[in-house]
Amino acid sequence: MAEETNAAASGNAQGPVFQLQRVYLKDASLELPNAPQIFLEQEAPQVDVQLEVNHGQILEGIQEVVVRVTTTAKIKDKVLFLIECKQAGIFEMRNIPTDQVEVILGVVCPGIVYPYLRANVADLINRTGLPPIHLAEINFEAMYQQRLAQQQGTAGLITPASTTKQ
User: Fold this and answer.
1) In the sheet that 162-165 helps form, which strands lie side by side, from edge to edge?
2) Rounded to the nearest 10 degrees, how much is the dihedral formed by the CA atoms of 37, 38, 43, 44?
3) Core-most of 17, 124, 137, 163, by most CB within 10 Å?
4) 47-52 contact pairs (CB < 8 A, 24+)
């Protein structure tokens, strides 16, 4: 027991490290190209949501994960609004087995960042004076599995990466 304590204190024991360092709004864009005339329309808009996850190394053991969403709402053939938003997180990842790194970057990290993205998109829509539209929960595990299947050239799971609400 004393040997374990001494090893940990001296820095010899190197266990896995996974820590969120920061979450930040990297980019946000809101367009209402047909305002104010579009506000007179009574139809419910069709909403298209496109989601993308990217990651890259910043420094040794430090990764940035970016979740990007593009949301377009249309009434008939006119755009009600277009929102593009990128939410990012900086994660420290050290001594993690190589076979687990991609899963953490593709599933765990986006799952941490996505709720912040949802809140920012909801806030942007709220500021337009339009009725709220909330992004659905996303199964990042299913998205990751689908991406793996596509990379391997096989049919994967179907995920709500692109959805349309009416």
Assistant:
1) 17-31, 78-94, 62-75, 46-59, 162-165
2) -160
3) 124
4) 47/71, 47/72, 47/73, 47/133, 47/164, 47/165, 48/72, 48/73, 48/74, 48/162, 48/163, 48/164, 49/135, 49/136, 49/162, 49/163, 49/164, 49/165, 50/161, 50/162, 51/138, 51/143, 51/161, 51/162
Residues 112-147: tens digit of each pLDDT: 999 999 999 999 999 998 888 889 999 999 998 988
Q: For residues 79 and 111, what is the distance between their CA atoms, to the nearest angstrom?
A: 30
- The model's pTM: 0.80
